């Protein structure tokens, strides 16, 4: 088969034998097409044919650029409260059903190399339209069609070829610009791409984004000085375009920026578009300079299109509508003011919507005529979507090359890297970020050490008297619940990361399971340090029993408690999205765990209908473990004959009288009790506390198992709680 090689898109349109024809008749998957492109780009395979596919019967093509079309998009939501004012663009039926129409019959198209800007007043539906185009609205709710090169886009394919840049800059504050982009490259670019190529891609992107001077500056946050707002916004864009997507959606990328920074951001978007992408962005109020960079505009008013066309045609459109733009007036500002004025009139913007429709109709007919002339003069050819994507990749788009799983019929594998690579990269990123904010772990360690020292001094060298037993029980209950409370700090840490996680997983940067595993693994060293700090400060100072082996077990129990507690808090932070609410829930539940642990009320004294909660109490298991460690193996006696009267009205009776009392009690009972007879051993203490059902090691295993259980729940919370789509 004839083939052309090199870096350009190789084509061949003639087939020489029957087997080739048969080969053509079998349509390849997109994966196969991309594989051929990949092979074509590798030095060992300079000549590869990717020409076959949906265009096999056609003559050599003149490639059409990508064209994203959307037809009659409508999207409505149920309005919750009756009294709320509804916009007038509701049908009677919808109004009756208290439904608000956020998008009303929106159509348009955007082409490769162009920036399409969605404009409108606040609440006009800009973000909603971007969401609709970026497949961030559930399919059942969105009416109308979105096609790329006249083919309906599957969600999985869209995720691979597109990127969505959110309004907020969700970045790790202590990573530099270059590190941030490098981590994005490690997530999004396939492992088959060497480190040096990834670095080269990052450098190219830094240049493209105009971030060369800020490359080694940290992103920063409220507490740390970092890059400027405009630079931060460009880094956010860079993360999402690291793989050079074909479609780029942005929600208000210039909001909050000064005019120079905003212009630079849009300039970057223009460069991206010109590199062979379609850029669709919402912009609140573009300046004159920004307007000159935009290719198409869609003006929205209450979910309806009031103007759709180029910025240049806007003046003619408005003049035709009877509102010519005065000289020296910013076109978009004038249009926005006009729309706002119309919105306040009785008829609303209906007249402008209708005028736009007739304007579009006129334009369409005009273009049709032009196209007929062009069709006759040149032999144009329209590539099907899969071929077009292959061609685009061969021209250098989608740097990741959307790694191909050649063994499966599905053409794209969802993720660029295997699970273990994702875990490594996630762990590396998190450790790098945390290392530069040592105060976060320092505060936690400080809290544990201070608690340990307070406990050590409060319960200094406890004796083995009955009071000592009580004090030990109090120490253990408090110590074990403290470990849980100090875990609550995980809430803000994860909540801060939560939106970064949602952004990254929405476009398959990595698996949710990788995140959970990495999150769990990197928490272990810090939990070990905290456990050592707590056990070290308290164990010997309080005078607990068991020597060094007893200390090791105590450390293991504290570690199990930290593990279970941190897993529980991590799970809660995956469910609750507000810091204060998170703290309230954690503190309340941990208080109940302590209440039901068996310290205040032993298991055999609990009402039977609360026993289930006793077994669910995470404090129960480490508490029982350390109690058994303390009382089980020891030969110590905790209550001797005369001490039986402690804490009773007979406590003040003279010692000789107590001995006499013991003698007569012994006579009655039939055995000898002296002042030094041991009446309560360690096992008796455990029995009195109702600690009879589990061995100390089982308590530790169960504690650890709870930890794993909550990590699994955390995974499901992320899986179902971060869909990133509107309903
Ligand atoms: N779930 C919802 N329920 C009810 N109304 C909603 C819902 N989501 C969005 N809206 C409304 O839809 C309208 C369009 O919202 P959208 O966020 O798309 O506007 P926007 O033009 O992007 O605004 P801004 O420029 O302020 O970001 C707004 O009036 C908003 O209040």
UniProtKB/TrEMBL annotation:
Protein's UniProt name: ABC transporter G family member 20-like
Residue span(s) of domain ABC transporter: 68-327
Keywords assigned by UniProt, alphabetized: ATP-binding, Membrane, Nucleotide-binding, Transmembrane, Transmembrane helix, Transport
Iron is among the record's keywords: no
Superkingdom of the source species: Eukaryota
Gene label: LOC111441522
Pfam families membership: ABC2_membrane (PF01061), ABC2_membrane_7 (PF19055), ABC_tran (PF00005)
Keyword Transmembrane helix (UniProt): yes
